Amino acid sequence: MRSLAAACAMALAAPVRQRLTAWLDERQRRWPNTANPHLFLNHYNATRTILASTHWITKTIGLSAQALRMDRIVHEAITSPGDVRRLTDMFGVSVPTAERYASGGIEPAEPRTRPPLP
After folding, report:
1. What is the CA radius of gyration of the chain?
2. How far apart are the first and last CA of the chain?
3. Is residue 15's pLDDT more than 70?
4. What region, left, alpha or beta, does residue 40 occupy, with left being phi > 0 and alpha being psi -120 to 50 degrees?
5. How confident is the model at residue 8 (pLDDT cuts 50, 70, 90)?
């Protein structure tokens, strides 16, 4: 299974694939006829084509959307030995921002709580 991020396909680790597959199966079971293309669905947006609210994401995941994004950028900076170009291409950040992430100047986010996975 591959994820598409900024037109850049990347392999997903086995635990990520398993959790993503489980969520997509659950999403399909709960909302089999939804036209919503977004990853996060709930009772409010499943019948529309709008994003889940940032409040819902924060409450459900235990991290704000911004903290989650920062965590993914930090992780990519660590796993791609500080490849500034990769960070700018994948996440759409500026070169100075990518350099801060690549130099280790930004720490990963700490979740407040971790809800149980389905």
Report:
1. 16
2. 19
3. yes
4. beta
5. low
